[in-house]
Amino acid sequence: MKKFAGIVICLCLTFACFSCGNAQSVSVQTHTVTFVCDGRTQTVTCGDTLDRIDAFTEQNVLGWTADPAHKYRTVELPLAVGEDITLYAVRQSDFESYFPVLDIKTKGEIKDKENYVEARISLYNTDAEYAFSSAKAGIRLRGNSTMYYDKKPYRIKFDEKKSMLGEPAHKSWVLLADYLDASLMKNKAAFYFAGGLSGLEFTSCAHHVEVKLNGVYQGVYLLCDQIQEQKNTRVPIEVKELGERRIPFLIEKDYRAESESETKYDWFAFGEHTYAIKYPENLTKLQYDYIVEYYSRLETAVKENDLDTVRAHVDMNSLYDFYIVNEMFFNRDALFTSCYMYKTTDGKLKFGPVWDFDWTLDTPWTGKPTVHNDTASAALPYFTEYNPEHDDEPGWWCWLMDLLQDKTCKAEFAARWQLARGAALDTIREIKEYRKALIPAAERNSALWYCDYESGGKEGYEPQNGSLFFDQYAFLTDFLSLRVTYFDRYCSE
Asked: Once rounded to an integer, what is the mean pLDDT over residues 25-36?
C-alpha cells in the first residue's frame, strides 16, 4: 500500500503564514487552545481568532481537527474561536491510500458553474511520471442538481493541455463527486463496462482520486474526461473548418436545453423532447438546419416504421450497445438528459458516450445518499415497462423496442448482447476485486459525508454490512449479476 510520502498539504503551508494573536492594545476575550499529538499536549491562548499554529512543528503534522473520530475534517485558518477548544493532530499515517491525491489551491471561492476561479493544482501519491506540481488552471462547479449537494462536483480547465494519470493531454477535466452513490462505483463500473463494447467508440476514463481543496480534505472523486469533440482522444469527430451546411456534430438529449441555451441555434426540439447542440458552436442557419433535419428524419422514420431509413441514418451497433449499458444499470437520467449522440461529416449518427450513472440501479430519488438494497426490479425490462418516468418521456426509448419487433433487428440485438455479456461479467469481477483497493479511501469519504446516514445519525440507518459503503457496494454487484440473467432471458425469448 502506498503512503502519502512527501505530502505537502496546503494547510501546512498556510499554518506558517499566519500569526496567533495580535499585539495591538485592544481588549479581547482570550481562549485556550489545546493541541494533542501522539498523547502529548501543548496549550496556547489567543483571542477570537486563531491565525497561526506553532505546536508540534517537528512532528510532520499535516493538519488539525476538532473531531478525532473524523480526522479528515481539518480546520482552516484563520479559525474563529468562541470558547476553549482542543485540536488533534492529523498525521501522515492517517492518510494512507492507494489513490492519487489532487491538491487544489484557489485564489477565491468557487461559487457557480459560469465563472472559473484561478487555481494551482498538484497531483501526487502516484507514479513519478504522472505527478506534477502547481499547474495553472481554472476551476468551477459543474453539473445540474449535483452542484447543489454538500459534496460539490467540479470542472477543471488547465492553462495548457495536461495529461492526467497517463490519459491523453487535454485542458478540460471533470471531477465527479458521486455524492448520491455511497459505493463510489456506479459511474466507474458503467464506464468500465462501456469501454469493453466495440459499438461505443469513446468512453470517458475513470480514475479515483482523493481531493484536497485549499488544504481541506474533500473525499473521493472520479476524475473523468470532459465530453467534448476530439477525433483521436475524445468524442471522435473532426475538429476542422466546417462546411457551409454538411457538418459533424455532437448533441445531447437534455430537458434543460432550451432554458440553458444562449442563442436560438444552441438547441432544437422534436416532439416533446429537447436537444442541446454541444458542437459546433456559433452555427449558421444552414448548419443548424442540417443538424435538425438529419435528426428529425431519423425520429420520423422510427415512427413510420421505416427501417431502411433508420439504418441509413444510424450506426445500429452503437445504438444497441448504448441501450445495453443504460438498460443494464437502470439509468434514469438517460431518459431525459446526459444522452449523447454524434456524427462525423461523412458518417452515420452514433450513440454515446455514456454518461451520468450516480442515480441508477432503480434507486429512489431522494436528493441525498439513499439506502437501497431491493434487487427485485433487476429482473424487469427497465425503459419500456418498469421505469417510473416512462409516462413523462413517451416514445423516446420505446422506439428502440419498436425496432426490435423486426426479426433482423431482434437477431442483431441478441448478437450484440452475446458480445457484451463477457464485458458485463468482466465488469462484475472487476468490481469485486477493486473493492479492497477502495476501502481505505471510501471509509475516509464516508466519515466525511455519510455519518448522518449511518447508525446513530439523523437518518437512523442501521448498516447491514458495517457501513453504507459496504451495503451499497454489495448491492451493486448483486444487482448487476441479476441484470445479466435478465438479458440472457430476454434475448433467448
From this structure: 78
Alpha helix ranges (H) inside 1-66: 10-15
Residue-by-residue DSSP string for 200-221: -S----EEEEEEEETTEEEEEE
Q: Which three cell numbers stand for residue 225?
A: 474526461
Closest to 411 measured CA to CA, from 291, 328, 491: 491
- Reported as half-sphere exposure (CB side, CA atoms, 13 A), residue 98 has a value of 12
- Per-residue pLDDT for 15 more than 50? no
Closest by alpha carbon to 12, among 98, 126, 122, 100? 122
Contact criterion met (CB below 8 Å) for 92 and 62: yes
Q: Nearest-5° angle of CA 50, CA 54, CA 58?
A: 150
Which amino acid is present at 224?
A: C
Q: pTM for this structure?
A: 0.80
- CA–CA distance, 411 with 160 (Å, rounded to integer): 48
With 90 as the cut, is the pLDDT of residue 393 above it? no
Query: DSSP string spanning 124-175?
Result: ESS-TTT-EEEEEEEEEE--SGGGGSSS--EEEEEEEEE--TTSPPEEEEEE
CA–CA gap between residue 108 and residue 106 (Å, rounded): 5
Residue 132 pairs in a beta bridge with: 123
Please name which of 467, 483, 482 lies closest in space to residue 183, comparing C-alpha atoms: 467
Alpha-carbon distance of 77 to 125, in angstroms, equals: 25
Residue labelled with grid coordinates 444552414: 286
- By CB atoms closer than 10 A (0-12, 13-18, 19+), residue 429 is exposed
Helix axes 186-195 and 407-449, enclosed angle (nearest 10): 150
- C-alpha 316/C-alpha 318 separation (Å) is 5
